[in-house]
């Protein structure tokens, strides 16, 4: 990685952290300059506008999400082990400081049409599709019932993850993880052949 | 209701709509003056600071939530009918323009300590407690298993509602409601005696 690319990574990580804690509304070239200790003009050299910065933050987060959640899960054996890997990886992702950037972005941008919202919609669709696909491998492998509905299972698992995010981050509820695990095991039991 | 109280209600409804669409970060005396066509000085006469305005918006939303979701549900017979009424009322609440103000506020404020965050935490705890209590009436009435866990059921039902909120508002997914209903019926089936 060149020095320029490394700086860019550092900036995008810091920007992602700002979005997770204060939202896109609180993330500007100014607040980013403060958190990275770079000059505003230096930041403008990397990102021409707030809009391109927003899109690059989302793109960067998506790459990190694939790298930390989806790709290692797909390395697990097809079927139930892969579903379990997706769940564990997403649980870890939701537990990082500031929580999940996509949950923050979805809630902030759902009524603000534009390229950033379009990107969040695409990423959320990709996530639900990945979950449904992984549940689908459980049907092919005979771990789950032939008439199980992968999209419904994806919808419900996403709900469990959102409830966990809510309970853990907002309420600081120490039981959030065990509640999420109980809900997940119940979902698997219902899916099983 | 006096003219002053009526104006106050109008302002708080408009402020709640702003929070649902652009968040607390985008709701200020300035944007509120534009949306209500009242003067900034007129608004300052009602709310002394942005912070008191935020708290009053949440208080007003809570009153509306109790009036539209919780109180009419508690009027339904104890047990399963009351759980169904909570679900239907919350589904309607989440479907209003801009979605649920508490979902928006939770995501925006989860990393911003202060009185507004404290209020959102209290309201979310009250909501989960109300849900658990209503599931509890289902146990007493013999509709649900004696060993059903009301807090776990509340956690899972809140997840279904959050997933619905996400799919419907962000993705504009036409299947969101039927997915939520399927998940809800499955939750009830698991709770039943």
Shape of chain A: elongated
The most extensive interface between chains reads:
A-B, 44 and 44 residues
CATH architecture title of chain A: Orthogonal Bundle
List the quaternary state of the chains. Answer: homodimer
Strand element count of chain A? 0
Helix content of chain A: over 70%
The CATH topology annotation of chain A reads as Tetracycline Repressor, domain 2
CATH class of chain A: Mainly Alpha
Radius of gyration of chain A: 18 Å
Sheet having the most strands of chain A: none
Count the DSSP helices of chain A. Answer: 9
Distance between termini of chain A? 48 Å
Strand content of chain A: under 5%
Q: Unreliable stretches of chain A, pLDDT < 50, 5 or more residues?
A: none
CATH superfamily of chain A: Tetracycline Repressor, domain 2
Description:
The structure is a homodimer of 193-residue chains. Chain A is mainly alpha-helical and 193 residues long. Chain A has a single domain, classed as Tetracycline Repressor, domain 2, CATH 1.10.357.10. Helix content of chain A is 78%, strand content 0%. Chain A starts with a helix and ends with a helix. The model of chain A has no long low-confidence stretch (mean pLDDT 94). The A-B interface holds A 20-23, 25-26, 98-99, 103-104, 106-112, 120-121, 124-125, 151-152, 155-156, 158-164, 166-167, 169-171, 175, 179-180, 182-183, 186, 190 and B 20-23, 25-26, 98-99, 103-104, 106-112, 120-121, 124-125, 151-152, 155-156, 158-164, 166-167, 169-171, 175, 179-180, 182-183, 186, 190.
